[in-house]
Structures are given as structure tokens and as C-alpha cells.
Automatic annotation (TrEMBL):
Organism from which the protein derives: Peterkaempfera bronchialis
Lineage, broadest ranks: Bacteria, Bacillati, Actinomycetota, Actinomycetes, Kitasatosporales
Record-annotated NAD(P)-binding domain positions: 8-181
SUPFAM superfamilies xrefs: NAD(P)-binding Rossmann-fold domains
Tree of life domain: Bacteria
Protein name: NAD-dependent epimerase/dehydratase family protein
Length: 282
């Protein structure tokens, strides 16, 4: 089976791609900025790979047929030059559905992913673009685990904002199908979870899974921006707050792509919480 380089192997999705490729019997090379931090089976070759340091790319790509890639516009030109030189035959890119369906506040996210997609298309290397919208793991960034563990509540805006939260394992499963099976070249896939879930309902589900009463304390947008300021850059804050405002009370679009490609239904948010229950448990 072709050797696959997984760039960003320490990330939530990348780590799952590595695990599922190994389960499929693939030869895997794991690339990361800090490979010494990876804890992987001995069968996995680990190599330093930094898209912003092109001198790391030649060794990382040597002998590789396929690549799983995150969207990093600043390093894409050097990466594609190195990939062509190495004879890479397919790139599976973790992109974003914002390239085709976005609110105005999400423009920087849209442009970032568009730039990488367009560069890959122009390179002539066969590609598969994975376009999820809302990662279930996002709530791990917003301070929910810490607040739930300490106080049994979350303080957050727009409790009725909907999202199509998708488990990272499902994104990885589609990536692995594209990397190991035929028929996915030069395709783009919108990926979502199986349900449109409000933020209030997400907290209720966490409560049900961990068996502890939890409270949603609604913040104003201004209060939310103050709370998010230490966590994310302003452009990310504008994008996520804009999304929450526009999706307030409005169910989001869903896709059956995960089931069509992998043969199993996308995991529910409750399944995601069960997999991450330790994060919310004191």
C-alpha cells in the first residue's frame, strides 16, 4: 500500500487519520513541527515537518505517494513545489465549507482555505478537499471544560445558535477512505455531523452523558467578546461570533457524506461527548 504522510499528526484530526490509516494497514509517516511530542507505535515513521520551514519538506516527502494536509496559505507554494518534485500522487486537504457557504464575518477563514485549494488545483496534483463546517472539538477551545469542571456551568452567547458539529474521527474516516480507495480524486466533500444542535442542547447532552446538572448562563455579545479576547485573534473572534449570531435559532444544513463514503452513519454529538467525557469531569 502507498506510503502516506500525515502532516499535523499531533492535531485532533491528524492523530485520528494516523490511527485509522494504521488500522487499514497503510504505511504511515507522521509529520509534525515538534515530532518529539508525538506518542505513536514503532511502526510509524516520525519526521519533523513544518510548512513554514521549506527545508523540512524534502525529507518528509521522500518516498511518499499521498499526503494529508492542513490549510496553511503561507507555506503552500513551497509545499507544492516539494510535492511535485517528490512525485506525490494525491493530496487530501482539510479545508472548510466556508469556501462555498459563509457569512460575511467568516471572510478571512474563507479566503485562507480558498487560497490553499486554488493553489493545489493549479499544481495539477490530484486532490480531495474535505470541507467540514463546525468541529465538535471547538468547544474545547472556548473554555467549556474548565468552566464545567469548576462551576457546573458555561457562560456563553447565543444559546440557540445551531451547528452541524462533526466528530474528528468522522473527518479522519473520510480522509482515510480517500487516501486508501479509488474514486476520490479531484473531488470536494461537505462533511457534517448527523444533527443540527443548538449550543444550549450541546450543554444538555454533556450533562446527560456525564450525569451532572449543568447551567447555561447567557452572555451578551460584548461580554462574549471580552471573554474570548485572550483565547483567539480578533479575526477569529469576528468569524465565530458572526456565525453564532447568524445561526441563532436557524437549523444548519447537513450532509450524508460521511455515511456515503465510509458506510457508517456520522457520530452524534452525544458519542463525541462520551469519547471526551474526561475533559468535562472534575
Amino acid at each position: 500500500m502507498d506510503k502516506v504522510l500525515v502532516i499535523g499528526a499531533g492535531g485532533q484530526v491528524g492523530a485520528s487519520v494516523v490511527e485509522q490509516l494504521l488500522d487499514a494497514g497503510a504505511a504511515v509517516r507522521a509529520g509534525a513541527r515538534n515530532p518529539e511530542k508525538l506518542s505513536l507505535p514503532d511502526s510509524v515513521e516520525v519526521v519533523r515537518t513544518d510548512l513554514l520551514q521549506p527545508e523540512t519538506l524534502k525529507a518528509a516527502l521522500d518516498g511518499v505517494a499521498k499526503v494529508f494536509l492542513y490549510a496553511v496559505p503561507q507555506g503552500i507554494a513551497d509545499f507544492l513545489d516539494a510535492a511535485r518534485a517528490a512525485g506525490v500522487r494525491q493530496i487530501v486537504l482539510l479545508s472548510s465549507q466556508t469556501v462555498v457557504d459563509a457569512f460575511p464575518e467568516q471572510k478571512p477563514i474563507t479566503e485562507m482555505h480558498q487560497a490553499v485549494e486554488e493553489a493545489i488545483v493549479a499544481s495539477g496534483i490530484p486532490y480531495t478537499f474535505l470541507r467540514p463546517h463546525n468541529f465538535a472539538t471547538n468547544i474545547l477551545m472556548w473554555g467549556w471544560p474548565e468552566s464545567i469542571r469548576a462551576e457546573g456551568r458555561v457562560r456563553f452567547p447565543y444559546p440557540e445558535s445551531h451547528s452541524d458539529v462533526i466528530h474528528e474521527k468522522d473527518i479522519a474516516a473520510v480522509a482515510v477512505a480517500a487516501l486508501t480507495g479509488p474514486g476520490h480524486e479531484n473531488r470536494a466533500y461537505f462533511l457534517s455531523g448527523p444533527e443540527s444542535v443548538t449550543q444550549r442542547r450541546q450543554l444538555e447532552i454533556i450533562s446527560e452523558v456525564i450525569g451532572r446538572p449543568l447551567e447555561f448562563e447567557e452572555l451578551t455579545e460584548a461580554e462574549a467578546r471580552e471573554a474570548l479576547a485572550p483565547i483567539v485573534p480578533v479575526w477569529v473572534m469576528d468569524a465565530v461570533v458572526g456565525y453564532w449570531a447568524h445561526s441563532d435559532g436557524i437549523p444548519t444544513h447537513l450532509s450524508d457524506t460521511v455515511e456515503r463514503i465510509t458506510g457508517r452513519p456520522a457520530r452524534t454529538f452525544a458519542e463525541w461527548v462520551a469519547d471526551h467525557a474526561a475533559a468535562f469531569t472534575p
